[in-house]
Amino acid sequence: MAKNNKKTKITPDELEQITFDAMRVHGVLPPTVEEVAAFDAELSDVDLPFGASDPEELLKKLETEVDADEQEVILPFTTMEETSRNLARAARQGGELTEDIERRMADDKAKLLQDEHDKE
Amino acid sequence: MQEPAKVQETDFTEESDADLLTLISWREEDGEAARAAWREFYDRYFKLLAYICMKRFASQIGDQGVNDLVNDTSLRVFDGGTDTFKTDETDPEKLRHLIGAWLSQIALNIFRARLRGEKRLPLVQVEEFEFPIEESPPLSGERAEQCEQLKEVLEDLKPRERDILLARCANYHRSKGKQQFESHVLERLAKDWRITKDNVRQIYSRTMRKVEEQLSQRPAR
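^ inputs. structure came back:
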């Protein structure tokens, strides 16, 4: 039987019907109630590749999920001064600043402010 | 089922499915009973839901993905989902199948959320639980061929195209013929993807052009 690629005219209505049928056959459209009944009738012969989970574990998962959603991330309020101190600490890998370093940082800051003031 | 002050027992193996859903919905009032009812519900529906999800999603997300999807879907039922299931059906078997279809809708919505890359999976909107999927007639030879022809193009769609097409198809009514995008579906998609409603329409049109192009190349007999 000879075949050719002849264009076939399909109306928009037909196109939607065909697409709907194809989605039903190949796609993921949920089954009708009648189809569910047919699936239900087959269940006794069905072997699933996985079993039911522990329902209590699932409920715990749900609660964890909800808790995580409800938990707001609140950033601590810090002043600029605290921020620079924290950054300095971070640069020192969390180590405490010695009194000497703290004093020198304060001196540097005071000098910087004085310089800016002088420029004005 | 009348609302009790507190449910004393936690063995719900004899309760009907409808009563289990009611007990789960009282989670705020009686958490322990709701948990026990949900455990029973999970036991009853796990295999059916897993089987449906294997049929629908395994080719796209694999066995482990399906397992996760089933568990997430079940958890959504506990996490406020019961409010969205409404039916007057009293026949236990029919009710079971209605619940199966409802769970499948939740699974689809979670799957769609994953397409959008959302970490926290949303609860599903009420309007999406109205079982809009109509029963389709058996596919004729030609239609079956056309569907087979579209397999590749549907698999190659980008996540956004696929999601929009999914939402459109999930709200498609065969009997109405060519339809406008329902406004609530359009609004939801625009919000979900953070684009305009016009963008949604454009993406849908582009997707349909891909489909049409594929079909128009169909070898004529």
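Chain B has two domains: 17-129, 141-216. Residues 31-78 of chain B form the longest helix (48 residues).
thumbs up if we can close this ticket
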